[in-house]
Specification:
Low-confidence stretches: none
Mean pLDDT: 79
Number of helices: 4
Radius of gyration: 52 Å
Helix content: over 70%
Strand content: under 5%
Structural class: mainly alpha
Shape: flat
């Protein structure tokens, strides 16, 4: 989609205007150098263009070679993987046979172990009967110890409660005394004169009336400063708008030049497409393509066998 109107903000306009300004200064400097006797760099640019085309052809050929080498490596890796699968199948057969033999031996061993375990269980059951009587005696001894500890803890808890009740009683009496003192009435009467100072002995002391006058003067000065600042902001805004309009005119001129640059870029794309057609005729690429085709056929045959 071409020629879409784009709304630019102030930052974008200034940024694009600065870019075009630098380009214009570079063009003026190059023109001044030519007027002062400098050589025209067109021949060098033409040679540089040819060298770039040659480098581009070599780069495209190298990229195609790498791509084909990667594909060839992939085919070889798939063949190697298929060979490994065949070897693993043979190993799996051997392992299954060995596993069946081991399972047979394991079953015989388990039968012998179960027989020995039954004999061992009978011996353990006889030992458990004797251990049960000793366990009952130990449990009775533990219950006696727990009962004695509970009686001792109950006496200590009763003593701690009595001490805590005594402390709370003393604290309640003290709070009642404080509340009685605070409830006594106090009489305070003082007449305030707004024209008198505080009497602290300072040079800068002022009465409330003087403070109000000083505050009114400060508010008027602040209002005047705000009005002046507001006018300054308006002037700055108008100057900025005019600067943006000038930048927009400059941007429109340079965008017209970008159209011609787009035509040059289209020509460069045509050169790249021609280079792609050339590098397909490279002998290295043809050899690699042949090898890749052979490996692909071999891999498909191996896959059918699997």
């Amino acid at each position: 989609i071409d020629n879409i109107p784009i709304k630019l903000n102030a930052a974008a306009i200034l940024r694009e205007g600065a870019l075009y300004q630098r380009k214009m200064e570079q063009d003026l400097k190059r023109t001044e150098n030519l007027l002062q006797g400098a050589r025209d760099p067109s021949e060098f640019l033409e040679w540089q263009k040819q060298m770039r085309e040659k480098d581009l052809e070599e780069q495209l050929a190298e990229i195609e070679c790498r791509r084909l080498q990667g594909k060839l490596s992939y085919e070889e890796a798939v063949l190697a993987h298929q060979n490994v699968i065949q070897q693993n199948k043979k190993k799996a057969e051997l392992i299954r046979e060995e596993k069946a033999e081991l399972m047979h031996q394991y079953a015989e061993k388990r039968l012998q172990e179960q027989k020995e375990m039954r004999e061992l269980v009978e011996q353990v059951v006889e030992g458990h009967k004797n251990a049960k009587q000793a366990k009952i005696k130990l449990q009775k001894y533990k219950q006696q110890i727990v009962q004695e500890v509970c009686e001792e803890n109950r006496e200590l808890l009763q003593q701690a409660l009595e001490e805590e009740e005594e402390k709370l009683k003393k604290r309640y009496e003290l709070i009642q005394q404080i509340r009685f003192i605070e409830s006594l009435p106090t009489v305070r009467h003082k007449v305030v004169d707004l024209t008198e100072t505080g009497g602290h002995g300072l040079i800068c002391e002022m009465s409330i009336v003087e403070l109000r006058e000083r505050l009114a003067l400060l508010r008027e000065a602040q209002k005047a400063a705000e009005e002046e600042r507001r006018e300054q902001i308006i002037h700055e805004k108008q100057a900025k708008e005019q600067l943006l309009l000038d930048k927009l005119d400059q941007i429109s001129l340079f965008r017209a030049q970008l159209g011609r640059a787009a035509a040059l870029k289209q020509e460069e794309k045509k050169i790249k497409s021609q280079c792609r057609d050339r590098h397909m005729k490279d002998e290295r690429i043809l050899n690699l393509q042949k090898k890749v085709a052979e490996k692909t056929m071999e891999r498909k045959k191996q896959a059918d066998l699997l």
